[in-house]
């Protein structure tokens, strides 16, 4: 889970409140170097916000990079133990291109990672902490949830090729219903599948209400498992007292090579795009040879 600098730059008081929140739930601070070997980012560019990375050559001849991301560094450097859950929070500078100029910018980022034998309790705790992190900054916030497993299950039911899946994910992200209908007109998808896609792409409702809408769409074990997970999350978030801030929005998508479960994006009043993001990234750990969940 990552919280960006726009909600932190007004003073360290926000960072202190977040640290207290994370420590309360057993998260320990993780400190790291400002740079990593460039290969780590070169092999996982689609996981990054931008594929542009600030590099330099070390005295030993290795190509190094100033950190554009914290999650990759943490996952690379920890060794999860069977049956254990590693819970870290961080407050680090990352280096990314800025839209304001042609250069790079040093950006403050706060977040947390939960890695290891992650279960339903841990996942719900992270989602709750995402909501409460936003709440420490503003009472006017929303946390939008999606589930890559539900989308994958729908794609599997239509036996879609990988290239078409990527195209459809892009259409869902932009809520491009006309693009979906164009695929139908071109004969690339059938009418029933197009109708379900349009429903998912346009859906934006409180989580409990949205679950009633998508339940009749379920086909196969994958979609059922994803639905059951979202249903459990809805119940737990009600117990935590944050369910009224959660909305289901399948336009929140991430790279299927890395994410395979619940993903989320957080918004606060006054900032037009997301200030917080996160999700289940078990596939990233598999790519890095780690036998764990995250």
Question: How would you summarize this macromolecular structure in one to three sentences?
Answer:
With 294 residues, this protein is an alpha+beta fold. The protein has helices at residues 13-24, 38-42, 71-77, 120-137, 148-157, 162-173, 177-185, 191-202, 207-214, 220-240, 282-287; strands at 2-3, 28-29, 35-37, 55-57, 63-66, 85-97, 104-116, 141-147, 205-206, 246-248, 262-268, 276-279. It is globular and about 60 Å long.
Task: Report what the structure shows.
This protein is 41% helix and 21% strand. It is α+β, with helices and mostly antiparallel strands and 294 residues long. The strands form two sheets. Strands 2-6-7-1-12-11-8-10-9 form a nine-stranded mixed beta sheet. Helix 1 packs antiparallel against helix 4, helix 4 (120-137) crosses helix 10 (220-240) and helix 5 runs antiparallel to helix 10 (220-240). The model has no long low-confidence stretch (mean pLDDT 90).
Name a few traits of the molecule.
single chain; 294 residues; alpha+beta; 9-stranded mixed β-sheet; 3-stranded antiparallel β-sheet; 21% strand
Shape: globular
**Strands in their spatial order, largest beta sheet:** 2-6-7-1-12-11-8-10-9
Radius of gyration: 19 Å
| Class inferred from helices and paired strands | alpha+beta
């Amino acid at each position: 889970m990552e919280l960006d600098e726009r909600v932190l730059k007004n003073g360290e008081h926000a960072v202190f409140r977040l640290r207290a929140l994370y420590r309360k739930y057993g998260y320990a601070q993780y400190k790291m170097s400002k740079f990593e070997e460039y290969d780590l980012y070169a092999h996982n560019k689609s996981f990054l916000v931008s594929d542009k990375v600030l590099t330099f050559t070390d005295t030993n001849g290795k190509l190094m990079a100033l950190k554009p991301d914290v999650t990759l560094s943490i996952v690379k450097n920890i060794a999860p133990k069977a049956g254990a859950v590693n819970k870290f929070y961080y407050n680090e500078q990352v280096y990314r291109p800025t839209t304001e100029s042609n250069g790079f910018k040093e950006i403050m980022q706060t977040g947390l990672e939960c890695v290891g034998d992650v279960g339903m309790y841990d996942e719900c705790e992270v989602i709750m902490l995402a909501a409460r992190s936003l709440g420490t900054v503003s009472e006017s916030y929303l946390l939008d949830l999606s589930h890559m497993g539900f989308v994958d299950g729908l794609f599997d039911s239509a036996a879609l090729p990988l290239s078409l899946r990527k195209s459809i994910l892009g259409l869902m992200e932009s809520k491009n219903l006309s693009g979906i209908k164009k695929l139908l007109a071109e004969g690339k998808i059938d009418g029933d599948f197009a109708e379900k896609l349009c429903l998912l792409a346009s859906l934006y409702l409180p989580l409990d209400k949205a679950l009633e809408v998508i339940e009749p769409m379920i086909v196969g074990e994958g979609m059922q498992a994803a639905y059951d997970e979202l249903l459990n999350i809805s119940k737990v978030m009600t117990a935590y007292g944050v369910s009224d801030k959660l909305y289901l929005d399948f336009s929140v998508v991430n790279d299927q090579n890395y994410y395979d479960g619940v993903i989320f994006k957080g918004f606060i009043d006054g900032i037009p795009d997301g200030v917080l993001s996160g999700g289940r990234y078990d596939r990233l750990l598999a790519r890095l040879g780690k036998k764990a969940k995250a």
